[in-house]
Amino acid sequence: MDDDTQIRTKGRFDAAYDAVLARWGGVTALETTSEFGLTRVHACGPTGAPPVLLLHGGGATSTAWSTVATALGRTHRVYAPDLIGDVGRSVPGDRRPRTPADLMTWLDAVRAELGLQRATLIGHSYGAWMALAYTLGHPDRVDRLALLDPSDCFSGFRAGYLLRALPMLLRPNENRARRFIEWETGGRALDPDWLTVYALGAAGSPRPRIVLPKRPSRTALGELHVPTLVALAQDSRAIDVDRVAAAARGALPDVRIEVLPDSSHHSLPGHEPGELTTILADFLS
């Protein structure tokens, strides 16, 4: 990507990113710092309310939480960071997270800088893996845990999903990213600004450096007593929903399973918010 194209792409990315943020309810941009760099965090909801930390999927940015954050922000203080090393407005430092332990150190630093002794964690896809891994390491710092169509928590991605994603990963461009999302969602209507954020982020330069997740052991899952919600997209092409539900039910001592009809992996969390936000609000209450 030449310099002029990169500048135009960044301009379009920023415009779409800001357009999604403009629809949040009273969003505030915060910044935290750690040994890994500067983290952009978007916050909404009343200060002093029970805190919720939202962790997005790979390449989705914190903007993916727009509708969920606005809904939960009526009763909770909501924080949504752009994951360090991924697409978005967080700025990695000289030391980048390279291992799952590094990511947990980064997330704990974000929590501490926000002044949160404890919080509810809600994660989608890759963010669900991060939320689960953090909770397993710090159960005393997590009130509740919600995993939305989680990847690498109870099983990996479907082989067909990975094969479809491969061209976008090897030779990324905007059109490939859009076609991939259209295939996975079955052509569902998505927020066009968020879709632009995702597609341009996938096509951008430099490429994000994602830490490969490590699936937790069944023994570790069996020792987790934090109340957990696993919300699955019925039409997900990313994971085997029945397999994940059975594995979660068999491994976690305190788990609630919900299957969201007419939803896909990438239509969560922000594009079919009605039932999802109702389930989340009930779980948090």
What percentage of the residues does DSSP assign to strands (E)?
Answer: 15-25%
Helix content: 40-55%
Contiguous runs where pLDDT drops below 50 for at least 5 residues: none
Derived from helix and strand composition plus strand pairing, the structural class reads alpha/beta
The protein's oligomeric status is single chain
> Mean of the pLDDT scores?
94
Largest sheet properties = 9 strands, mixed
The count of helical stretches stands at 10
Total beta strand runs: 9
Question: Which value, in Å, is the CA radius of gyration?
Answer: 17 Å
Mass-distribution shape:
globular
Structural description of this entry:
The protein has 285 residues and is α/β, with parallel strands linked by helices. 41% of the residues lie in helices and 18% in strands. Strands 1, 2, 3, 4, 5, 6, 7, 8 and 9 form a nine-stranded mixed beta sheet that branches. Helix 1 runs antiparallel to helix 7, helix 5 packs antiparallel against helix 6 and helix 6 packs across helix 7. The termini are far apart.
